[in-house]
Amino acid sequence: MPRYLSGWLNDVVKNAFKRGYISKTRERPIHDFVQRVIEVKGSGRTPVIAEYKRRSPSGLNVEADPIAYSKLMERNGAAALSVITENTIFSGSYEYLEIIARSVKIPVLMKDFVVTEAQVDTGFNLGADMVLLIVRILTERELEGLIEYVRSYRMEPLVEVHDENELEMALRCGAKVIGINSRDLLTLKVEKEKVRTILPLIPSEVLKVAESGIQSTEEIRELKRAGADAFLIGTSLMKEPDKIKDFVNA
Ligand SMILES: O=C(O)c1ccccc1NCC(=O)[C@H](O)[C@H](O)COP(=O)(O)O
Fold first, then answer.
1. Where do the Indole-3-glycerol phosphate synthase domain residues begin and end (predicted)?
2. Less CB within 10 Å around the terminal CB: N or C of the chain?
3. Which residues contact 135 (CB under 8 A, 6 or more apart)?
4. Which of 85, 105, 109 shows the shortest CA–CA distance to 29?
5. Whose CA is nearest to atom 15 of ligand 1?
6. How far apart are CA 25 and CA 196, in angstroms?
């Protein structure tokens, strides 16, 4: 069982355990996220992971065509796409993952509350190249097992941490791509300082992704100075998709 959880997080995780597995033959090759970030950085641009998210507990509520949105992000230099597949609170779906993965040639992240191997199987089958693993909802043993399982498909997990203890656990389990989420999962408060405190504690060989609450090129530049390699941006791009043009040139 995962760690003790309460409130909406507990409901979301319970739902994740019950979610059906989708059996399909994957149509797309694996797109290597780490390689893509190296290429984007090498070309002098900023690696942005643009997130397709329609609703969120922090109040987002927008409609956007998943294919048009993803193609716009790809055309304007996004390094990767993140697709929310959580279906109860975020109104995401496996269908979005499938159609977005089919429409673009950049890496795609399945962003969900992953607690079972069946969810990983489904992500791979539908075309994901990366899978989010949130340390907060897993025991160390589960995290270790899921990292290995994700890699058995040649996908790479994005291991998400919120504090120093979670970071230590992610590193003990061998995470190579770590996301520092500035949004507290229970209070929903975005604490940007937290990311700047955790970034310097991450070894140089690990790829560092700053997550949540990013709204401006200035914030991206600050996070870069603090050591972030890539930036996961949802709300701000869903509301104003053209901002991608500035973000990739930050
Ligand atoms: O987006 C939320 O409101 C949210 C609330 C509670 C837990 C997770 C949440 N979002 C998941 C994410 O990590 C974000 O979607 C992602 O980092 C992008 O954040 P943002 O740019 O602030 O939409």
1. 25-243
2. N
3. 143, 159, 160, 161, 162, 166, 169, 170
4. 105
5. 234
6. 41
pLDDT mean over 40-69: 96
Catalytic residue (choose from 181, 182, 194, 219): 181
- Ligand 1 atom having least distance to the Cα of 53: 15
How many angstroms does the Cα of residue 133 sit away from the middle of ligand 1? 14
Tell me, using a 6 A CB cutoff, whether residue 233 lines ligand 1.
yes
- List CB contacts of 101: < 8 A, sequence separation 6 or more: 28, 83, 108, 126, 127, 128
Task: Return the structure tokens found at 50.
Answer: 């643009």
Mean predicted confidence (pLDDT) in 2-11 = 82
The confidence score (pLDDT) of residue 6 equals: 83
Percentage above 70 pLDDT, the chain: 99
| Domain architecture of the chain: domains with CATH | 35-247 (3.20.20.70)
Using alpha carbons, list the distances in angstroms from residue 90 to 103, 113, 180.
Answer: 22, 11, 20
- Tell me the H-state helices in the chain: 7-18, 33-42, 66-75, 94-103, 117-126, 140-152, 164-172, 192-198, 217-225, 235-239, 243-247
Residue 130, token pair as written in the block: 């990366």
Residue with tokens 């055309």: 75
Q: What is the amino acid identity at position 77? A: G
Which residue owns the Cα nearest ligand 1 atom 12?
212
Regarding the beta carbon of 85 and ligand 1, being less than 6 Å apart is answered: no
pTM, full prediction = 0.96
Catalytic site includes residue 111: yes
Q: Is 53 a catalytic residue?
A: yes
- Check whether 95 has a pLDDT greater than 90: yes
